[in-house]
Backbone:
């Protein structure tokens, strides 16, 4: 049962609140008809409880202000986190709030804020799922509470004009064919455990099997051998937007490239992306910048080709 509805505040009765209100009216009617002082007292207590529920739930909605929003790495068709930063003036006040975020082309699971932060700022992470890559607009943020007693539900709306960038779905790339440029595992040397490189003083946790006995005898203190290991080189991606036309094949290719970026990140490999478009060639470096470049890419041709993968030199 909705009592009123304006632009920023909504107050409604819950099912329990409606039953409580009917019982309150019944007790009030009996007390008036019978003149029983005990019924008057019960009526007063019930009315006071109802009013306290409204006042406390209103206080729970006060003193909150949205100061920032971070989308992180939010992928299309994959549940990802939206981090909301709230300026909280409650100083430990009990909130009991549900947070509902409205955005275009997607759905957001409600979040919960139990107690106000004493530091003045609190963070709530909401899980979102968006259907398509690119920019999506966040329309409104709703704070909703039934605290306390569950008799009244109050909601406060904050209109938003934020945008979040949704990255392409990270499709697992297929195995590389033998004719594909970039096939092969070129490597770089780094300090590790493959071939001897030098020696250094013993550190806590070093294996006794790595002790460099000759250097230990010379220095009169334990020294251990250092080694080199091999790791895969970084990956270089190329996409020619003028060779692709809009449509599902282009979107699948972007998803495949997004999956390659994800694999490179999990393998701790460097990555770069070369985007060729009508305006020229642009190159970006790093996992997140490459993802964002793919999210904003627009096909500018009519064909179905123009990508390749190769090791970084």
Residues:
């Amino acid at each position: 049962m909705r009592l009123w509805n304006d632009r920023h505040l909504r107050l409604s009765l819950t099912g329990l609140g409606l039953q409580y209100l009917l019982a309150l009216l019944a007790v009030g009617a009996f007390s008036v008809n019978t003149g029983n002082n005990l019924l008057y007292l019960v009526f007063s207590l019930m009315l006071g409880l109802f009013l306290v529920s409204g006042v406390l739930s209103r206080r729970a909605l006060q003193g909150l202000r949205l100061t920032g929003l971070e989308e992180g790495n939010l992928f299309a068709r994959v549940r990802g986190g939206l981090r909301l930063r709230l300026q909280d003036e409650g100083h430990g006040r009990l909130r009991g709030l549900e947070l509902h975020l409205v955005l275009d082309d997607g759905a957001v699971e409600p979040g919960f804020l139990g107690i106000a932060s004493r530091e003045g700022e609190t963070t709530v992470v909401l899980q979102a799922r968006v259907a398509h890559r690119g920019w999506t607009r966040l329309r409104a943020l709703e704070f909703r509470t039934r605290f306390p007693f569950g008799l009244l539900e109050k909601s406060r709306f904050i209109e938003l004009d934020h945008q979040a960038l949704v990255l392409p779905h990270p499709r697992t790339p297929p195995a590389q064919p033998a004719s594909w440029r970039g096939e092969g595992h070129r490597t770089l040397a780094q300090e590790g455990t493959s071939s001897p490189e030098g020696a250094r003083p013993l550190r806590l946790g070093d294996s006794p099997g790595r002790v460099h006995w000759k250097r230990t005898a010379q220095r009169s203190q334990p020294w251990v051998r250092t080694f080199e290991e091999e790791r895969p080189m970084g990956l270089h991606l190329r996409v020619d937007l003028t060779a692709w036309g809009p449509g599902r094949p282009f979107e699948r290719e972007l998803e495949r490239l997004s999956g390659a970026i994800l694999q490179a990140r999990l393998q701790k490999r460097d990555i770069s992306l070369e985007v060729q478009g009508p305006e020229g060639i642009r190159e970006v470096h790093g996992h997140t910048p490459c993802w964002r470049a793919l999210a904003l890419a627009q096909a500018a041709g009519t064909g179905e080709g123009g990508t390749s993968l190769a090791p970084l030199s």
Observations:
- Helices lie at 15-34, 37-61, 213-219, 248-266, 287-296.
